[in-house]
Amino acid sequence: MENTSYRAIAIVGAGAIMPDAANVPAFWENVKNGRYSITEVDPDRWDPALYFDPDHNAPDKTYSTIGGWVRDYVWDPMKWRLGVPPRVIDAMDEAQKWAIACTREALEDYGFPKRPLNLDRTAVILGNAMAGEKHYFTALRLYFPEYAHELAESASFATLPETLRRDITRELHDRMANRIQDVTEDTMPGELANCIAGRIANIFNFHGPNYVVDAACASAMAAISAAAEGLVANDFDIAVTGGIDRNMGVSSYIKFCKIGALSATGTRPYAEGADGFVMGEGTAIFLLKRLADAERNGDKIYAVLRGIAGSSDGKGKGITAPNPAGQKLAIERAWQNAGLSPATATLIEGHGTSTSVGDVVEVQSMIDVLSSSNLPPDSVALGSVKSNIGHLKGAAGAAGLLKAALALRDKVLPPSVHCEHRNPNIDFAHSPLYVNTELKPWTMPPDGVRRAGLSAFGFGGTNFHAVLEEYIPGRLNGNGKRSIAVSEIPSNGKEVIMNAQDVSRTSTPSSYKAPLRGALVIGAASEAALAERLSVVEKDAKAGLAPAPIPPAESDLHAPERLAIDYANATELADKAGRALKALAANQPAIWKALRAQGIFRGHGPAPKVAFLYTGQGSQYVNMLELLRATERIVAETFAEADRVMTPLLGKPLSKFIFIDQADPVALAKAEDDLRQTAITQPAVLATDLALTRLLAR
């Protein structure tokens, strides 16, 4: 497996509104205690007397009236000082309100505002399908002329006196208008799905990208996947992500009943008698950061997201029928993305919808992935939070992620309820999977890390799987600190950039010597404050303590007063810190200019602009970036990508033209000649420039 620890993402905050749970602690207590939160619909939501019929074939009726309903949550916009006018709040769908409330809980859980966030680098990426319910009612109001027209055209109505017809039509209109809010300029933004994310960015003043992802019942996982990829690509530093579902209107019930998907008896994933899913509603919101950043900042970490991937079913029995081939692909890709073997999982939080076909197909997909692992029976716990709260549709993956993350944090295996007898159509006997039905300690696996898989599959043949593991301080990045680019000085005197993590695991050519150096960057609001921080550094360094080489904090980089020191060890750092303190006291530009040559740099005021200059044809040479390609994964990946693109055009991989055995003078001479050919030169230079840019961005 490839080492992909650089992709690790930390969950540093969480907020939730769930059936029978107004926040994350209440939800977790319910899950641990095996609470079953499925109840009958409240007639105030929709009246079963109008819509229920036990006959599955009855037109325009639902045969199911049960669900996981949110009946209590905290919403106090005045106390929270959201700065949103009451008329705007009145026009908001409950989905937007839940998203705001859960984001607020997640931010408080993280410690904001006492623990700062870079608002300019905070993204909001949420999963939602079908928006909320308000838009159904405003559409009903606006379509009244259609109903009035059909009423007027009916033969029986036409026999009534004209005055009576007008009165009936007016009274019907007024009654509907009294039930449904007026349509105003606030109506559409209060209902649109994309405004769920936009509302959060607006209220909390986030300036990263905000958008909503719709992948049906995999929406939340698709959003989390996009958030993770954006963090890895350094598009932003914080991601507010998760899923929201507040769509339990009677129209959804009737439509799902026509598919035959709903159960009228209850939710029982992986159990005998599973006869359909039970709808639920709710929200789970997470704050995600790159693990290295979270460790550097000393954040509380629930769990670590190691990998996530998706797939499509392709052709199959139908657009809504699960396809084991597609599900297997998603699971395999996620573990490959994580750089880990699925055999190391000891918990699977499954999609587990409690449908007769879906559960069987899903478990068989898991068994197929694990089949080559030779794991013993009953060694991998299986469960589904849908056994507690029903199927949250667009938010289902977020609910599963919350359950799995809390299980990893507390090192317990939570129970999956209503599985007294396992589904006889699932071959549990010849697999490592078992449905865990009791709360119990999560014993340490042989490899010393608790890991969980998490699945979410959606209508339309979209599949997602994620890999989570418990947080063990410093396990991935060393001493709880992020490994970063440090200088390696080769014997020829040219400086190249290496990654400290790669240095420890990669054999370095003997012609290079590698004194690893660190760079300390500190910032402050004033020179006095800067001197105070530097004094602490000097004191620690004199005691033999040098900070691990970690990336500078954004607050230091953007501080009005800044200082950077290049050093190899504590002794050198102490010496240079002392010189910098003297220079601060003297406050003479000439001193700072002289210190630059010694690796001591002073900056103040707004940071200058940075420009990248890309070389053109003529700058190429054989074996350019050879060492970086051998030691930096992102450089190697860039050349591998170039090979895939250029092989059909050049007849062989591009890297074969660039990287040549130094001991073969004939091959070297031919390569030098090849690199002068425009068709080879330009992609070679482009790949080199792109590799360097990606490395610097990382």
In a nutshell, what does this entry contain?
The chain is α/β, with parallel strands linked by helices and 698 residues long.
User: What would you call the quaternary organization?
Assistant: single chain
Termini separation: 22 Å
- Indicate the proportion of strand residues: 15-25%
Nearest-integer average pLDDT:
90
Based on CA inertia axes, which overall geometry fits? globular
Low-confidence stretches: 478-515
Label the structural class: alpha/beta
Tally of separate helices? 28
* Rg, alpha carbons: 30 Å
Helix residue percentage: 40-55%
How would a textbook summarize the main sheet? 11 strands, mixed
Strand order of the largest sheet: 5-4-6-7-1-8-15-14-9-10-12
Extended strand count: 20
Please provide a written account of the structure.
The protein has 698 residues and is an alpha/beta fold. α20 runs antiparallel to α22. The protein is 41% helix and 15% strand. β16 and β17 form a beta hairpin. The protein has 28 helices and 20 strands. The strands form five sheets. Strands 5-4-6-7-1-8-15-14-9-10-12 form an eleven-stranded mixed β-sheet, sandwiched between helices. A three-stranded antiparallel β-sheet has the order 18-19-20.
Topology:
Elements: E1 9-17, H1 24-32, E2 39-40, H2 48-51, E3 66-67, H3 77-80, H4 86-91, H5 94-110, E4 122-127, H6 134-142, H7 144-153, H8 155-158, H9 162-179, H10 187-191, H11 194-204, E5 210-213, H12 219-232, E6 238-245, H13 250-259, E7 282-290, H14 291-296, E8 304-312, H15 324-338, E9 347-349, H16 358-370, E10 380-383, H17 386-389, H18 396-410, E11 412-413, E12 433-435, E13 440-441, E14 451-458, E15 462-469, E16 485-488, E17 496-499, H19 500-505, E18 518-524, H20 527-542, H21 554-557, E19 561-567, H22 570-586, H23 589-596, E20 600-604, H24 626-631, H25 633-650, H26 654-658, H27 665-674, H28 678-697
Parallel strand pairs: 4-5, 4-6, 9-10, 9-14, 10-12
Antiparallel strand pairs: 1-7, 1-8, 2-3, 6-7, 8-15, 11-13, 14-15, 16-17, 18-19, 19-20
Helix pairs in contact: 5-11, 15-16, 20-22, 25-28
